[in-house]
Design goal:
homohexamer, about 325 residues, alpha+beta, Rossmann fold, eight-stranded antiparallel β-sheet, five-stranded parallel β-sheet, 8 helices, 20 strands, about 20% helix, about 30% strand, globular
Chain lengths: ~325, ~325, ~325, ~325, ~325, ~325
């Protein structure tokens, strides 16, 4: 799994070109004071080699940007975010055209899941499909059965690079998502053995059953994993924690459900889990990214295997397999 | 979870002031040769800013202090121990008034569990209560039911700073404990799913039943977790491994049972687990720290949830909730 | 568990002397560009102190050696491989007498499992026994029952140092193994709770039943662990993944089954697991190291507890205990 | 000469307070990619401790700021420049109130020459005196005798901190200067043995005689030092190199002419030399900082000892001694 | 003078292409154990980007290569020597076609003196001229007047890159040289104020007169500089120290005599001094590089200004100016 | 000049054995917080390999030891001082037997000047000779002629290792010295071109004449070097600066007067200069080390060449050559 300096440079060249870095563009590489990253040097050099004017900025924390930094970010054409800044001000900058690309995964995942134009094509095809749907219905053999009315919030997608003005993305990972209409989701979600809850970074060992009523989880039952999930959420003492956040499905043919089992906590950001093709990506907490008003610091991403996802009764994912020809490519063997 | 250099300095100022570092005091910062710590610089600077004369010492190993270092430690007013030295000589130095403060947890845990005077007040109230008890009786729905006669050894407590001459503490964590009378504990301890065994740094997934007779565990039964615990203890080929060590309960309102699930092994020292309010902290092995004669290198700390602890039939913890008003404060929501 | 610089040097002196490093010998210390190791300095200095001419080489990747490096490796008397190079060219160098010693484990495991001449004696006694056998039969209370005809491939062993021309070894670990005759293994292998699969670096929590027919695993059944194993292997889209690789048993009296539970993924290489005395070390994938033609990048090492291993109906391991006096020594207590 | 972390923090607190860093202010710490500095951490922490919002920025080079960085610098209240940026854009930012403080000297010089309010008082008194003068006449026993008509450009001063909106300064160093009227200087300047030319960072060993005509040096004569100076300036192939830049005198009672002899080239920035009390600071090259039109990359700073400086025939420095009571304080003994 | 990572990569690309690094070539980057260099990473990545197979090797010392390293160096197409290895074995490797390029100067000198094809053309033109000469006569106003019969040894040149099989060079620097016939040089060499002696890394302040008889310096007279030179050479207690080594002239239009005055000892390798156009490069000690038998560890390189060099009475350098149109280009102004 | 890790270890073994480090001894390695040294690791490991109990201590500054550190230093058998602590408390520790060895020079000087028993023998022979003298008379062709009555203070010597209880030494360097009777020296000292003044770390280029009256320098005349020396001393505003400190002569046959010319300021500590055989080592300032009462922070060490030193009219050094057979060995050639 070792990657040479030259290979790393080549990977970055590819993604920066996909992100349309051009001569004269302003690229800002962003980090926190205590943010360790192996990518500072390669981000600076490869942006500059493409002709960009590049600067490197560190801010005190992921959670708050100093006021003086905001005009810098607005003046940027592309922000390479090596810290995954959570301050919503970064999204304000997108309104004036700034692109943002988050890069956190270790080198061998950046390489294995290297984005391609085809990732973008699949993701945009899925976004168009999702944008037209009025209701999402999800079922699984494990017992999931719930309805999410759609339309209040836009369909969105990620594909691993940031090419359009204002686009926010993360290298790597392709998936599509939207937010259900406020207060509208109803039904049962059964997280099955092997499903993943981020930020716990482990496979569930015992099923968890969630009863969802009018957009909020009202009951969490099961064995240890349910116990832990319940306790984790309870700490926040905040009802919004139980709301449904984004829902969608994974589109990365080179993302691997199995990858998480090879890494310790903190050694991966989890993009394999979020993006592997055909996962139903359920999540809890805020919907501000979609334009909603619900804000909470507790956000769980829950990739689920073996689900079927229907849009207005049309299957888009059947038992964990993406259906549309426009959204699939053959899975890759590991070499 | 990123913490700025200035915030870290402020946290240290707070704890060093709680530890009563004064102008002219001798502060010795202690580490091992191979001991990596993020705190060397902040320990030196913040002690010096409070007016202390500060020195920094490295010793070969946690297990043995060179002879020449002993007079230095004795001459110290406060030892800031960044390695958790296990040589009992460090406790001899306390007899002449040296205070000791161990600091190992990562910055965001130091911040979240920042000690306050109220921690000390709760811990001392609990210590007084425990000092007067003649027997501790512990029960749980999972099947725990055992009696520990008390009185032979003193009641002790930790609260996260080292303010009194000879006091040993660790930042962070508030709890109270004593050692049962030698050879006196009898009954059953059932470690339940979700309880923690240190140094395994994971939640138990299957209950473990311990039969305790006259102060020693005589039977360990259950599934995989029991199997592992049994094998781990057997390696030492030492009967003292099975003795009961300290017993007590947690008092930190800002300690979180859930925290362990977010860290890889070795990324936290486990003070959340040991100190979260209302846990019954059971342990095995030596009782030398309490003044006993039983020594063994194998020491398991076992925070248990949902127990009830009675002192002379008075409940002090009921189903994992601390009872006494003097020992409680409202739990904190995560922001 | 801290080890001083001087102790580390002494350990290395011991193993380099066991590996017969002599004045005037050519020692090559090998690493990858991005290969972090704590041993570069000690490898260089201790080899040189024994009188060797020493050089240090870095190659781009574990998977491919630059052509120019091959004559250097051939000219070496001993290669100290700090990266575990997988390029088969390294084995070509052994044909002209180059010895190879891989060293990856953390210092405290190097110390606890420090090789001795007795390790070599036990391993060679076992190798002689295995070399004469015509069939290996393995059973366990969990349900394992399979036959592996032997004789097509040589018996081999490791003992923690590289003393003979052309010998390849890893510090630490003593065990013996061979490869079953091509396409010949039949029966059932039941991986039990607590058995280990590398590179997953965790204990199995639910039994996995493998049906083996004519040298290949044809069915994998069980709960989550079986599910994960099946999915992991399927990614390679390669039938050879399911073949049986080397089989043998562990001989390290100082290897600990329990050790894995104390380390995060990536913090140990797993030599405790592979080598603890009496484990049946099952594995899957290639047999090229034994001289076979089957190659695949997917290789699982599976140490199993509580098995009985018979060679031509003679028990060599009974329920996880090594039988032969020549292959045993008393287990060590941890101090 | 060793300085502890706490002492360094205290020095910075002093200077940042003199520079009026206040709660809520925007402080930007500025560096180049390859700019090594011991002050990144202390700059960030001490600014934040004073309540500022702080960010850290790196730019590719001292000679050009990326466009996106300009709005950040304009939004800053104080720029702490750890690289001495030469791009004139930094001075544009001052027009909207941004203060700039350059810090380059090693810690023991920052400490010995720690700025005080008295430095500012002396420097401002001198600036007022200089602002009213119409001609500066400088003589020395070595042969210097020249006249510089004044008035076209403003009088300016530095005193080691940046307290006023738009003020640019460097820690440490107090001196006063202006630029002679364009094309007006005439006479002879004799650099004597022991005078210093920056950036050569050495004492002149042989006198250099400069003939100045209408604002430009027209002849350079002498031995090796003259030879070297002449060759150095000739490389630029630019007539502006020979123009007279700023002229003024040093006011730092804790600056030492002798200090340069204790440092290797590159180990000090030379503020001792530029600022020691009573030196006549002559210089060559550009006058853009004063508001002139003459630009050239070659700028020599030449502190001269034992000169007498007259303003409109009034002596302000006599044989290297500052005359005005308002501009002097007793020299410090080294302890 | 700051250079960005991307600029450094571009400079290396240029020189590696001039050195004809091609896909499939073997590039070996060579260093010593304790050899600090800023160029390891850029050497590896830029070679690999050109398609080379690259390895990195460290040897114990500049003075002796381990035997096992020799076949590696012979197998290399290009050795990038970051330590300036002095073992003559490195020159044996050149016999089988290995090219060698030494790189030691700091980045800003690599940039300012970036080699071009024109450097090579000038150097080769000068080499052809020198190869045909039978005697070199050198004079100077300072008193130099000596004759060196030529023809016994080949004419050689450097131009900053290594393009031909077996060529040895150093980036940067263009000059031409040969070795006088053994025992044949006679006359007087007067090192003048401002001339440079390497490895003293300073300008001579007082003239040194050398009387040369039959190839050896027989008298050294002058003031302090002569005293120091005499004492330095005497330490070796070796007559060969006084022999004449290579003689030739500098051809780098972008080399600067003045540069040395801006660097501390050890901050530059001195290629400016050795290569600035028109210097007469005199030297003392060995002639093995030219094919002679005289070996000694003491080697002084002495660039002299303002000399005239005649080959068979034809002036090739007159008073420090190169005469031949084929060997000159306009000097560069510093920008 | 590169030294391998193994060679460095061997050198340290030699000197620690000469310093009689024994099993069970307490060795304390001493440094300052900001003290960079390449020797921490080798000091710890090589002391421990000799069986010592070793600890590592850092103190805030060279000028003041924290009180708590004093009992540690007193408990030490050997202090390895990597910072050259100036606090006189370190000498108090010697009274109870603690040995002290300062080590500051770069590796290649430690190697070239490696101490031997013969260094000790020469130094002790010289000390005995000096101890019996009543007056030292020093002359030189340059004009030195002064008398120093002796007897009030002991004769002392250094030889590069610390073998006797209470002995203080520095690796490397052998020389002998005493302090003249208080207020008794009279005459003229002429520092000649090429003599060295520490801490200026350069060769004098112009003679300096010192008039000494009753133990104090009363006049300093000459050109630039005299000017600089006078100014440097005047800064202290302290009459004791002008007193005569220790006087003696160098005894290191492997010390080189020439070495200083190859190093930048701060790259060497100057032990070559202080110790080269036959130098007359003159110095100014304090005499507390000899037991006197005169204290001042300004201390100049001045190695002078070509002097003759007479003790009670017997020549011990004649024109820079040591006379006594017991104090000489043949100078070494550089290889």
């Amino acid at each position: 799994m070792s990657i040479t300096p030259a290979t790393l440079m080549t990977l970055w060249q590819t993604v920066l070109k996909l992100s349309r870095v051009k001569p004269g563009e302003q690229v800002v590489v962003l980090n926190t004071y205590d943010g360790s990253t192996p990518y500072k040097s390669v981000a600076l050099s490869q942006s500059e080699i493409l002709g960009a004017q590049v600067s490197y900025v560190e801010v005190p924390s992921r959670h708050g940007l100093p006021d003086a930094v905001l005009p810098l970010l607005q003046a940027a054409d592309l922000i390479i975010d090596l810290a995954f800044i959570l301050d919503s001000q970064i999204h304000r900058c997108r309104e004036t055209g700034t692109r943002v690309l988050v890069i956190l995964e270790p080198p061998e995942i950046l390489e294995r899941m290297l984005p391609q134009v085809a990732d973008q094509q699949r993701a945009i095809a899925a976004k168009h499909q999702l944008a037209q749907a009025q209701v999402m219905h999800v079922t699984s053999a494990a017992g999931t059965d719930f309805y999410a009315p759609l339309g209040e919030f836009p369909a969105m997608c990620q594909y691993g690079f940031a090419d359009e003005p204002g686009h926010w993305d993360q290298w790597p990972g392709a998936f599509v998502f939207t937010f259900p209409n406020e207060g509208s989701v109803n039904g049962t979600v059964v997280l099955d053995r092997g499903d993943i809850i981020f930020p716990f970074f482990s496979y569930i060992q015992s099923p968890i059953t969630l009863q969802v009523e009018n957009g909020f989880i009202r009951e969490i039952t099961g064995a240890f994993d349910a116990d832990y999930m319940k306790a984790f959420m309870a700490q926040y003492q905040d009802n919004n924690v139980y709301a449904i956040s984004h829902i969608g499905w994974g589109l990365s043919h080179n993302g691997q459900w199995e990858a998480l089992g090879l890494y310790g906590k903190g050694e991966t950001e989890g993009q394999d889990g979020r993006a592997f093709a055909g996962n139903f990506l359920f999540s809890t907490g805020p919907n501000t990214v979609g334009g909603g008003q619900r804000s909470t610091p507790c956000h769980l991403d829950v990739p689920m295997r073996h689900c079927s996802v229907y849009l207005d009764d049309q299957p888009v994912v059947l038992n964990g397999e993406v259906m549309s020809d426009q959204q699939t490519s053959p899975p890759l063997a590991i070499v």
